[in-house]
Amino acid sequence: MDSDTCERIISKLHNLVSLNTNLGDFDIVYASGEDNVSPVACVEGNISIASWCVKHVYAHAYHSSLRCKQKLWSYDECESLTRWTQFCLLIRPEVTTFWNLRRALIKKGLVSGDQELLLTKLILSRKPKCIEAFYERQWLYTKVLATSGHEWIRQEIDLCTWATSRHQNNYHAWNHRLWLLNKLLLHEDRNDLLKSEFESVMEWAEVHVSEHSCMHYVNQLVERMALSSKEGLCSLERVPPYVSSVAQLYEAMLSWNQNLIVQYPGHETLFYARKSLVLKFQRDCVDTATPVTAREHLVEECLVSGNEIGTQSATKDETNSWCCDQPAFKRTCVENVSGDWASLVMKERKFAEACVTAATSDFEKSVAQAYVRTVGRFSV
Amino acid sequence: MADHPKDVTITDEHPKTLLRDKHVEYIVSYSKKKDDFEYTMTEHIRMSGMYWGITAVDLLGCLGRMDHTEIVSFIQQCQDKTSGGIAPSIQHDPHMLSTLSAVQILVLLDSVSSIDVEGVVRYVSGLQNSDGSFNGDKWGEVDTRFSFCAVACLRLLNRLDAINKEKSVEFVMKCSNIDGGFGTRPGSETHAGQIYCCLGMLSILGELNRVDFDTLGWWLCERQLPSGGLNGRPEKLPDVCYSWWVLSSLTLLNRLHWINPDKMRTFILATQDPETGGFTDRPGDVPDLYHTLFGLAGLSLLGDTSLKRINPVFCMPQYVIDKLNISIQIVGDD
């Protein structure tokens, strides 16, 4: 393919990206190139490029960008460089050198910050866990764009929700949201922002119970709310779940988590989240906190020999009381534990064993048994 | 064992023995392909790719099959005269990741003096921030991976004096979580790859005692799935690269025996491509250099004597680390 054809394809793509304010997705679609149609198409804001031309056009844009990088660019070359790097990054966003060129263009005022936000969003539509695109946005918000109000935080949180819905356990999207949470907590409207963030993330979590990254974020949010309230930065009474102490905050979360475990058995994530909540409760709310002790012999016993500890001790009665009278069980599980680590551990043990008994498949059982082993390691 | 929704099945069709010769051919021929599209598409990770290939070939006892002169000359051309950092390929920008890969290769080939060592030291130490963290390059991204790269690189060059070690440790500890693991930044989710980086860095600096061995060891061995493979986080699929990140971490914690080694070995062997050679992420996928090194490195950690012994921190053959007289900390050894 000659370089003029490559340039035409690159320009067409560039024009579509620049003219469209309402961009949807970008992707490479399979096409052999035998039919005589343009390889670049746009349908309802979604842009595609035909697979047959990608190889040739990418090589052209790639080598042109690198050649251009070696010297001081003239204005014309800057325009070409903007198009080439855009093309390359849409295809291969992992190439740091091209992001660096973009940043140099932005610093010279030749590419606008808003244009770059559009490009990164298009890239995320195709590769929702692209760390480079998330970092570019952080760089833009830190160094280029004005971030005085809080609209940008809300918009960016929406982007995270969108990206996390497109890829399971999207580490970098949740990390990006954590970066936003740090900004949010410094904001003067933090009570309002926290309220909407808490509500939106809990709603999402309840329908994504296998999302460990999400539950980690939920627990981070809770931990930061606890810390902020201690520092007088936020008021727990004014943000959900509307409680009056850090201990009550953890209790409310444990209760929420327990409802999910009962409703959706067999999800490792929920038990991992529970373990973190219990350990954070111990760290932040128990006066005479005892560290989790080393019980290596026990660990070896249950892991190496496959011997599952504690699974035999759940009695029929306990199981029934949990299954038939769930709210009562829940109350006894979480309400009387403030400052009483030993009783919390005891309740956790009963709960874990009840989960094993209630399991309706081997897999559900193995997940609950893992939590029995985890609780077995909590020191009393 | 119960059917696991996020695991793979290993059948009789999958390889059961180590296909040594196939792997050597796979790596050597990969390093000779230079004209195709694939080469352009992977040029931004060329330096790491070379490190994966050359280390893997050395573990297989065939280091002589690689063209040493060509490799060293390539690295020389990748060093940036101004910053001192090393780029992943010619005409690309220097970065912490490619700088460590280049130093690892040069140490392996006993050719460190062929580059401007002071330049590398200047580059790496210049990327440390006041809170002790490290940037990946001059654009400022922070990640605990870069803390490992910086410390490992400077230890190999015997120049740890160039950074603030105490602050480095302080930052990495801020990235630890209640489950005992580590994430990319303070508050980030625990990830087996980051655990390796943080433990490796603490081991080099002799600061492993700051870690809760049992809590972390427990989390790590829970990564083993019924197939024997390891995932890097809960609810993720197994991937052969975690046979390195998790096994090396457990080795540093002196708790490698907490996983089932036979099942682990079966899983790693099943990820070999019996036709082309090389290892894949999961049985039946397409092989690459990255998974090939970490598959072999995992087998070496498990004690496969047909491979050279690997160092659990530097991911380089142990004899190379011994020659430099570098010792690492392992829990229970001191």
The residue ranges of chain A in which pLDDT falls below 50 over 5 or more consecutive positions are 288-338
Helical content band of chain B: 40-55%
Structural class assignment of chain B? mainly alpha
* Helix fraction of chain A by DSSP (H/I, runs of at least 4): 55-70%
- Rg from Cα of chain A: 26 Å
Rg from Cα of chain B: 19 Å
Order of strands across the main sheet of chain A:
1-3-2
**What is the succession of H and E elements of chain B?**
HHHHHHHHHHHHHH
Largest interface: A-B, 58 and 48 residues
Any idea what the shape of chain B is? globular
Number of domains of chain A: 3
**How many strand segments of chain B?**
0
Flag low-confidence runs of chain B: none
Order of helices and strands of chain A: HEEEHHHHHHHHHHHHHHHH
Mean pLDDT of chain B: 96
How far is it from the N-terminal to the C-terminal residue of chain B, by CA?
39 Å
Structural class category of chain A: mainly alpha
**What oligomeric arrangement do these chains adopt?**
heterodimer
Summarize model confidence as the mean pLDDT of chain A. 86
Keywords (chain B): Metal-binding, Phosphoprotein, Prenyltransferase, Repeat, Transferase, Zinc
Family (chain B): Belongs to the protein prenyltransferase subunit beta family.
Catalytic activity (chain B): geranylgeranyl diphosphate + L-cysteinyl-[protein] = S-geranylgeranyl-L-cysteinyl-[protein] + diphosphate
Organism (chain B): Hyalella azteca (Amphipod)
